[in-house]
Structures are given as C-alpha cells and as structure tokens.
Write a structure and sequence with these properties.
alpha/beta
C-alpha cells in the first residue's frame, strides 16, 4: 500500500513490511492530527487489532472508528492487504476531547510470509501489547473450538509475548467473533474461548513465571508463578454478523461497538481520563512522546530484547524532557520580551540605537527589567511544566532543575550587564550625596549614605532578577495597572500588554492552585541560588568592594580638605611669623630652643582641635587620624625649615646688619657717642665681628630637635675665634700703618 497524503484522516504507515519504523513521517502525522498529539497530554488512547490475514480487520476498524484503512477487494482474490503496521486517528470518537489512535496490524498466518515465518507476527503482537490500551482480536466464529484452527496459535502468541513484558500494564482484550451463528449463544462461545485462554496461560507459564503486573483487581493473586490470567488481562467478548450477507446489521452493530471506546460510555473499555501517576497508570506516555516511545519499543522488539516498560518510560521521559528543555531555550531566544531586553542591553553597552528604534542608554526601571525577564523565563518554565506534566516525575524534576540552571545561565549576560550599570548609577549617586554632606554631620551622613546605597542596590538588583514575585508583585501593579508611567512607557505596547496578561494569569494560578505558589516559591529560591552561582553573588561582592572603596576615598578626600583648612593653613599662620621673628632676633643662645618650643606648642594645640573634628564630626578611624596628625607634625617641621631657608638666603645682609648694630650700640642698645674720646673703637669692632660670626654660625646649622646643640656651640666658638683672630690681625695692621706714618713725618 502506498503512503497517502499526510492528514489526520489518512492512515499512516507506521512500520513497513520489512520492519522499518517511519519516525519522521510519524512526527508529521502527529502534527497533522486535530488536535496535534503534542497538545493532548494523556487525553488519548490507543487501540490495536490482531487477527488472521483477510479476516476483515481493516473493514472492522473503518466501520467502528471511521478510519479509512485500505480493505481487501475480494473480487481480485484473497491476499495480504495490510503490510506492517498502520495507524490512523478516529474521526468518529471525539467525546471529552478524546483522541483515539487506531493501529491496524498485519494479519497472522499469511501466505506471503510463509508457514514458518511467524517472527513478524510475534514482534507486532508484542509491540501492540506494549503500546495499546485495548487489543482487538478478530476471530472467525467457526474457528472457535478447533485445536489447530487459526485462533489458538494467535492466542498463544499473545500469551507468550506478554511474558517478555517486564511489569506490564493490565490491558483489555476484546474478542470480536465474526460471522456469528444464530444457533450458538455468545456466552457459550465466550466460555470456550475463556477455557482455551486459561489452558494456554497455564501452558506458557508452566516453565516461566509471569512478570508482576502493574495493576491488579482487588483480591487477585500475587505476582509470580500461580498468578491468574485475570491479573494481566481484562477479557471481553462481542460478536458481529456476516459483513457481506448482512451489511446494514453489521454497520449498525459497529456503531454500538463504537460506544465501548467512547469516554462518555459507562462501559468504556479503558480508563478515562487516563491515569497520570506511575502508581495508577504504569507511567503512561504522553501524546507528544507516543511515536518516539513506539519507535524505541519497536527497536527493542526487533532486537529480541525483553521489554522493561518502567525503564523504557524513564528513558522516554529523559529524551522527551531533553527535547522540552531545548525547545524552551529556543523559545526564550525568540521571546519578544527577552529580545527587547537583549536589544536594549546591547544598545546601552554600545551607546547606539538598535534596529527597531530603541535608543540607549537602557533606562527601564528595575521592576520593568525584572518583570520582562520573569515574563520570558517563567513562560518557558510554565511551558515545560505543562508539556512534561505526564512524564516520569523524577525525570521531570531533574530536568526542570537543569532547565532552571540553563535559564540562569541565559540570564547571566543580561543581569551582569544591568547590574554593572546599576552599580555605576548607585555609586555615582552615593558619591554625589556624600560630597554634599557638611563637615559637622559627615560621619553620621556617610554611614546613612552607605546603608542607603547598599539597600538601593540590593533592592533594585533583586527586582531585576527573574522570579514569580517580580511578575505578580510590583511589576504587575506597575505595568498591568499602570501605576508606574515611566516603567510602562519604557516598554513596547505589545510587550507590556502580553506581560500584563501573563502577570494576571500567573497571579490567578498562584492563588487558585494549592501547590502552585509553593512550587513558584521553590523555583524562586532555586533560581536565586543559581543566580548567585552564575553572577549574583559576584556582582554583590563587587558592589560591596567598590562601595567600600568609594566610601574610603570620600572620607580621605574630606579628611584632606579638613586638614588643609584646619590643620596646615592654621599651622602656617600661627607658626610662620613667630618663627621669622625669632630668626630675626637671632638670640644665639636661645634661638633654636625657642623655635623648638614654639613649634611644639603650636602643633600640639592645632592637633588637639583637628583630632576633635576628625573623630567627632567625620568619624574617621584612628589610623586616618594618626596619619593626619603625623602629617601635621611633618608640616610643622617644614614650616620652620622653610622660614629658616628664607632667612639663610639673606645671611650676608643679616650679618652686616648685626655687625653694624653691635658696633654702633652699647650692650643695652644705646647708640655709641663717637665724640667721646674714651670709646674703644677696636674693641667695638671686635665685638661686632664676633656677633656677626655667631649669627652666621647659628644660621649654618638647623637644630629643630636639639640634637645639634653641641655642633652649634662648636661652630659658634670657631666663628668667634676666627673673629678674634681677624680683629688682632686688623689691630696689628693698624698699628703698623700708624707707626709708618709717624716716622715719615719726622
């Protein structure tokens, strides 16, 4: 049979006659179904049919389910029509939004495969037992009771392959007895078939214990050898008239049979709605993973491996959850809110305008950033939870944690960029606020500014991080209600509208679902941990480091300003002129001692006042205060040294002035009366020379700490001795000149 156009009403060749599984075409068929299998969750059932070749299986399915499987044309001969396994969706059963998948299996005992080739028959039977909820067994009425008829080999095949299922589900076997005889009641035929089934069951389990079933009826036997057939199969019976002889009656009874597959029917052959948990439904595979699961089961069947259905479901859940994680990440990259954030982040970093007209810098409020990120990330988490709701809970939880981590990684660039900008803004505001603080309240104001900057950063950073609270809390009131016009205006209209809708839906979900709020809280906590690992804690640490540096710099800068105004400048005023006065007086014996005392008293007084300002007003630590006072002490020395250098630059003129003053004045400062013949000019000149020599010696050596007193005394003594020697030499020269002048006159 050739493959027909892909539509939900057209049969799809699931497994070729050579055993090839059509995975790609199966996915296309799943998407073409209405609704698509990806959206049905557990709200579907699978029905398969087995039976002898050319027994009317396809005809039966078409009449009951409204499918369009190709039927045998008896006029061209009785031969194989269905090859492999075909699947179609029933268009006739739509009760409770149910989706019924119908599998038409290749007939058994076909001439085309040969008498000894029963391998595909067994494989397809095992496949049907693993994937179907109900297995129809199509039998001719006249074969019932025969030892070697077409019925028993088929039943034996069903029982034997069941042993290869590890922990199988309890499933329904519906025996459809074709071409019934009005002479034999259905209950008699059912008893014969039941006896045959029990005999076959005992025969196939005599040497091999059956696996424990997933479900048992109350009071059924325990697992293992001795378990009864009813522990594994719910056996039902129905019959139909001859299709060719009584087509109207056949069609009418098929309509009645259809009700057995309707979820609204009290006698529905399968549980509806299908069980969700593994304890109730053996870990049922959701619709979006049905064909992948079927392909893996077929691979194991073809490999002649026993089917461990619980392990298979975990494997399917793992693969499916991996696909969902990848889908969520792809959807995040395509999300309008997320793309808006990324565009604005990139443009704010580059300082450019993006291709949609959004210009940097990125100025959305923290609430808007957090809401947009939350909207994008939690939408994907919600999508994952919905799609994975019916998969193995353990696998779903593990992969959800993996998705959270990957979402945190995706958000790392966005958050780190915005946290860097937030840090810069907060620190700039901190620096500006601190600069405005008056000296009198600087210390207290600095502490408040540090605390305020830290609180502002942490609050804004927390608002930026994606969380359900950001979506339903301040962001909802700001955007959905429109309380924050700046935030609302910063967003594209379509993004803001979608965000508002999602926020409202999530808020209602958290309020209505008992476990939703707790789950969201767990997600928030886990995301916070992941965010801290990815970027959050590092960002907070970096902020604390820079805040501390800014605070230290601001304090040191203010200390420097205060020191210059209330330390150095005061010291220069109070110490400079008195030192110059002492230098001008040049009392050789007490000059340096007086200068040292003046310096010490001035520095001590200014230091006391400066310490009070630094400690009480600026609240500077002791280390900074100590360095400041040490600097004051050095500046005191520099003031004295500077004045001494200024004075020493004019030492020659000062020496001349000192010589002239001593020569022309007595010891008490009285001017010498040169008309008085008793004035000893030579003695006065000698005294003047010695005074000038002592002045030069005093200026030659700085003695700011008293360590050079002896050197200074030695210098003065040397200069005085030199002055005396010069005076004697001058006297000798004068006498010689006087004597020479007198001899010549005589």
């Amino acid at each position: 049979m050739s493959s027909q156009s892909m539509s939900p009403s057209s049969p799809h060749h699931l497994i070729q006659g050579d055993g090839t599984f059509g995975m790609d075409s199966s996915n296309a068929f799943a998407k073409a179904c209405t609704p698509p299998l990806s959206s049905v969750g557990l709200q579907y059932s699978a029905v398969a049919i087995m039976g002898p070749q050319s027994s009317g299986k396809s005809t039966l399915l078409n009449k009951v389910f409204g499918t369009s499987f190709v039927e045998m044309d008896a006029q061209v001969g009785r031969s194989q029509t269905t090859k492999g396994v075909w699947v179609s969706k029933s268009p006739r059963i739509t009760d409770s939004n149910a989706t019924v998948l119908v599998l038409d299996l290749e007939g058994s005992d076909g001439r085309e495969r040969g008498e000894d080739d029963t391998n595909f028959e067994k494989q397809s039977a095992l496949f049907a037992l693993a994937v179907a909820d109900v297995l129809l067994i199509n039998l001719w009425c006249h074969d019932i009771g025969r030892e070697h008829g077409s019925g028993k080999p088929l039943l034996r095949t069903v029982m034997q392959v069941n042993l290869r299922l590890f922990n199988p589900r309890k499933m329904t076997l519906l025996f459809v007895i074709r071409d019934r005889s009005p002479m034999t009641p259905l209950d008699k035929l059912a008893k014969l078939l039941t006896d045959d089934l029990n005999d076959i069951w005992e025969s196939v389990t005599a040497t091999q214990a059956p696996p424990p079933p997933t479900l048992r009826e109350e009071g059924s036997a325990g697992a293992g050898r001795g378990s009864s057939l009813s522990d594994y199969f719910d056996v039902r019976f129905t019959s139909l008239p001859n299709y060719e002889e009584r087509p109207e009656e056949f069609a009418a009874e098929c309509v009645v049979m259809r009700k057995l597959f309707s979820p609204d029917c009290s006698e529905c052959l399968y549980t509806w709605p299908p069980a969700v948990s593994s304890g109730e439904g053996g870990g049922r595979i959701p619709g979006d993973a049905f064909f992948y699961s079927a392909s893996q089961i077929w691979d194991m069947v073809r490999s002649n491996k026993d089917l461990d259905l619980p392990a298979h479901r975990i494997m399917v859940a793992t693969v499916r959850c991996d696909e969902l994680v990848a889908d969520c990440l792809d959807a995040l990259a395509a999300d309008d809110a997320w793309k808006h954030l990324l565009r604005r982040c990139e443009s704010s970093v580059a300082g450019t305008t993006d291709n949609e007209g959004d210009s940097g810098p990125f100025d959305e409020s923290a609430a808007a950033i957090g809401a947009l990120a939350s909207h994008a990330i939690w939408r994907q988490l919600a999508s994952y939870s919905t799609s994975a709701a019916h998969l193995d809970p353990g696998v779903v939880s593990t992969k959800r944690a993996e998705l959270l981590r990957k979402l945190a990684d995706e958000a790392a660039h966005l958050a780190s960029t915005q946290l860097t900008r937030l840090r810069a803004r907060v620190l700039a505001k901190f620096t500006e606020d601190v600069a405005k603080l008056p000296d009198e309240t600087f210390g207290n104001g600095m502490a408040k500014a540090v605390a305020g900057a830290r609180d502002a950063y942490q609050a804004s950073a927390a608002a930026m991080l994606p969380s359900s609270q950001n979506l339903v809390g301040p962001a909802r009131s700001a955007i959905a209600v429109g309380g924050d016009s700046k935030t609302k205006a910063a967003l594209p209209a379509d993004v803001a509208a979608t965000l508002a809708d999602d926020a409202g839906e999530l808020a209602q979900e958290l309020e209505a679902a008992p476990g939703a709020a707790a789950a969201a809280s767990d997600d928030d906590a886990r995301f916070a941990e992941l965010a801290a690992e990815a970027y959050g804690q590092a960002a907070f640490d970096e902020f604390e480091k820079e805040l501390s540096e800014k605070a230290d710099f601001a304090l040191k800068d203010r200390v420097d300003v205060v020191y210059l105004a209330q330390g150095r400048d005061v010291l220069r005023r109070e110490l400079g002129e008195p030192v110059m006065a002492l230098l001008d007086e040049c009392d050789v014996g007490d000059m340096w001692r007086s200068i040292r005392g003046l310096r010490a008293s001035s520095v001590e007084g200014i230091a006391a006042a400066l310490r009070e300002v630094l400690e009480l007003q600026l609240e500077a630590p002791e280390g900074i205060v100590a360095k400041c006072l040490e600097r004051l002490d050095k500046d005191g020395t520099e003031v004295v040294q500077s004045k001494c250098l200024d004075a020493s630059a004019a030492v020659a003129s000062r020496a001349r002035e000192r010589f002239t003053h001593v020569f022309n004045h007595t010891a008490d400062g009285t001017p010498v009366v040169w008309s008085n013949l008793r004035v000893n000019v030579t003695a006065r000149a000698t005294a003047a020379r010695m005074a000038a020599a002592r002045l030069i010696a005093s200026y030659a050596i700085l003695d700011l700490d008293g360590s050079n007193e002896d050197a200074l005394k030695d210098a003065c003594d040397s200069m005085e001795a030199l002055a005396k020697e010069m005076a004697r030499a001058a006297a000798v020269e004068q006498r010689a000149e006087t004597s020479g002048g007198g001899g010549g006159g005589g």
